[in-house]
Design a protein that fits this description.
This is Glycogen synthase. The structure is a single chain. The protein is of the alpha/beta class. 36% of the residues lie in helices and 17% in strands. The protein has 2 domains: 15-272 and 477-490, Glycogen Phosphorylase B (Rossmann fold, 3-Layer(aba) Sandwich); 294-473, Rossmann fold (3-Layer(aba) Sandwich). The protein has helices spanning 15-20, 39-51, 65-68, 108-111, 129-145, 166-173, 198-201, 221-228, 237-242, 253-261, 294-306, 329-341, 354-366, 379-388, 404-410, 421-426, 441-455, 458-469, 480-490, and strands at residues 23-27, 56-62, 75-80, 89-95, 101-106, 156-160, 180-184, 192-193, 214-215, 218-220, 231-234, 265-267, 316-320, 345-350, 371-375, 391-394, 414-418, 434-436. The chain has a 9-stranded mixed beta sheet, sandwiched between helices. A 6-stranded parallel beta sheet has the order 15-14-13-16-17-18, sandwiched between helices. A 3-stranded antiparallel beta sheet has the order 8-10-9. β1, α2 and β2 (56-62) form a beta-alpha-beta unit. α5 crosses α6, α6 (166-173) packs across α8 (221-228) and α12 (329-341) crosses α17 (441-455).
Length: 497
């Protein structure tokens, strides 16, 4: 819905409740309620909700076409001045049904376009992304300065991934002392730009140093977030260690290792929201529990029909993923012969790199009735796939955290995954899933064959499903490290920036 539509004012909290809660602004390029391309949108929606019991957490998001036409009323509540090549824009407010408040940057020339948050319908990056996301970072600094025309002023900024990387930078360049946390969701995406963009973004000369945002002759939004934030987090403990090594550091391992040695980098694992509950999820055809998994057979039959698979007594494997090289999908394609020869079936849903989409279609053509592929994404189908599958395949070359493995576990589907990042932290090998060491076909095949053996042992399969479905993975069970970090920063114990 367009700006200007009225809606009833939200319920006012008591003064005592307001005083006990700190004002925290999440700065993100995705929010799954309104727009998402992957896990960032899920975390940006679920984590603020989990934290709202303790703090007044609100979200700042660009006003993409999908956001502006989402059907949610938008009230114009403020405006932001332009700066260098960053245009003026207005601030809209959306009150979601559960009370989460989202501030929207209303700038049609920057954000209201066909395509994704980052590129056009052919997946080509917008050439002015440096302007679009610098405007997001500067808006966060404006909010913290009280110059957004909004009465609510954050006491702490929490910025997420490279699109929000200039939020802590603008805070420091303008001499603002608001504490800032920067979370790395995927180090491989760094937001790199030519140094000639410096004038457009009003980047000071001191930022061009190697210990700030310079990266091999380019300007890195991600590195700026790391350099200027008071604390840097990433989305699992294992990934926090991995990114300080050459294999996973994407050229920033030394920079990150220095942060870690000073106690300024930590890994806090993601959680999932409580809608992922097999006993209550309304997306499912029927609900079930760890003690009674009969509903899984109903959903397995649905998946087989949905993906044109034959009736089969063997195990059902699924992939629900972005189709990108990081996810190790080439390994799954190479393993398809083994899956089919041993009586298994495979259903794949996702979208991504065109060449991987095409190769997945060809895989389904090779194994009609045994392999089914849907290029796209649908939330209801995804949940039913998790509910119906015996095993989820996640042979990721790296995985900062991963959410799919936790979704699958909650629905009694055991993940088969590489021991990396958050997969290593959330899967107990042989108990709640299967882990393998090397990003190789041999290592992957061994783990899948273990899954086949467990499938052939019903009492063991049932025991693993029960453990997986009851593992603690909801945000309310995992937010304490964030609460402690916020407390330290708000009390001024954050060390060097």
């Amino acid at each position: 819905m367009r700006p200007g539509t009225s809606r009833p004012a939200p319920q006012i909290r008591t003064v005592q409740e307001n005083e006990s809660k700190k004002k925290i602004l999440f700065v993100t390029s995705e929010l799954s309620d309104l727009i998402k391309t992957g896990g960032l949108g899920e975390v940006s929606a679920a984590l603020p909700r989990a934290l709202r019991l303790h703090h007044d957490v609100r979200v700042l998001l660009p006003g993409y076409r999908q956001v502006m036409h989402s059907g949610h009323p938008i009230r114009l509540v403020g405006s932001l001045a332009g700066h260098a090549a960053l245009p003026r824009c207005r601030v809209g407010r959306i009150d979601l049904d559960d009370g989460l408040i989202v501030y929207v940057l209303v700038s049609p020339e920057l954000y209201e376009r066909e395509g994704t948050p980052y590129g056009d319908e052919r997946n080509r990056d917008w050439p002015d992304n440096h302007i679009r996301f610098a405007r997001l970072g500067l808006a966060a600094a404006d909010f913290a300065a009280g110059s957004a025309g909004v009465s609510w002023r954050p006491e702490l900024i929490h910025a997420h991934d490279w699109p929000a990387g200039l939020a802590p930078a603008y805070l420091r360049w303008r001499g603002q002392g608001t504490p800032c946390v920067f979370t790395i969701h995927n180090l491989a995406y760094q937001g790199l730009w030519r140094p000639e963009c410096r004038a457009e973004l009003a980047i000071p000369e001191e930022a061009l140093r190697m210990e700030r945002m310079e990266f091999h002759g380019q300007l890195s939004f991600l590195k700026a977030g790391i350099a200027y934030a008071d604390r840097v987090t990433t989305v699992s403990a294992t990934y926090a260690r991995e990114i300080t090594t050459p294999d996973f550091g994407c050229g920033l391992e030394g920079f990150l290792r220095e942060k870690a040695e000073r106690g300024l980098l930590s890994g806090i694992p993601n959680g999932i929201d409580e809608s992922w509950e097999a006993e209550t999820d309304p997306h499912l055809l029927c609900n079930f529990s760890a003690g009674d998994c009969a509903g899984k057979a109903v959903h397995a039959e649905y998946v087989r029909r949905r993906f044109a698979l034959e009736a089969c007594a063997g195990p059902l494997f699924v992939v629900v993923s972005r189709l990108v090289r990081q996810k190790g999908l080439d390994l799954t394609q190479a393993l398809a012969d083994t899956l089919v020869e041993r009586g298994g079936q495979l259903a794949v849903m996702g979208r991504g790199e065109p060449e991987l989409e095409d190769s997945m279609r060809r895989l389904a053509e090779r194994f009609p009735g045994r392999v089914g592929v849907d290029i796209g994404f649908d939330e209801t189908t995804a949940r039913r796939m998790f509910a119906g599958a015996d095993f989820l395949l996640m042979p990721s070359r790296y995985e900062p955290c991963g959410l799919s493995q936790m979704y699958a576990q909650r629905f009694g589907s055991l993940p088969v995954a590489r021991r990396t990042g958050g997969l290593a932290d959330t899967i107990e090998d042989g108990v709640t899933g299967f882990l393998f060491e090397e990003a190789s076909l041999e290592s992957y095949r061994e783990a899948v064959l273990r899954a086949f053996r467990v499938f052939a042992t019903p009492h063991l399969l049932h025991a693993m499903r029960c453990r997986a479905m009851t593992a603690p993975c909801f945000w309310r069970q995992t937010i304490d490290p964030y609460l402690q970090l916020y407390r330290q920063l708000l009390e001024g114990r954050h060390g060097e920036a």
